[in-house]
């Protein structure tokens, strides 16, 4: 049984990324995992300022924003799921800010181990649509010594012009991914 911290780096609670994540979580919960979902769209999290205070004062970040509420959840989880819409061929700014702020928990560039997953949605559906963020995700998780246990990318989603839509096939795939997570 896993304790999964699910970080949804989208601005829309009714959006494609949130729905994709919900489908995954349903499967994961049915499989017996504990899911703690955090929606960054209603949080205020800025990027790391690089002040270095966290490295001198017991890993406490000096920036007083919503990330302070998320650090305890990160400490408790064994698995981290990052969910993000594709924004300008990358993860969203909210997602990137969350990742940067994890610096506060590092000790001499060493991070406590986590298994990780990535879920993404995008308007385009080319073979290269998710190349940049997937490459980034693989790179930084490996650099932190973390273990990737799953990636799902949902291309061809309709966007923010009033007709948001994610195909049922993606929701089914994400649900099955959660259900089959060991
Ligand atoms: C600011 C912005 C940038 C986007 N950039 C891309 C992009 O680079 N490539 C792409 O295929 N879709 C892009 N999209 C479309 C979204 O990735 C897509 O609609 C996604 O499913 C939205 O997720 P959400 O409903 O969770 O907000 C962009 C949308 C916005 C609002």
From TrEMBL:
NADPH-dependent FMN reductase-like domain segment(s): 3-123
Any one GO molecular-function label of the UniProt entry: oxidoreductase activity
Superkingdom per UniProt: Bacteria
InterPro entries in UniProt: Flavoprotein-like_sf, FMN-dep_NADH:Q_OxRdtase_AzoR1, FMN_Rdtase-like_dom
Protein name: Flavodoxin family protein
Organism name: Sedimentibacter hydroxybenzoicus DSM 7310
Highest classification ranks of the organism: Bacteria, Bacillati, Bacillota, Tissierellia, Sedimentibacter
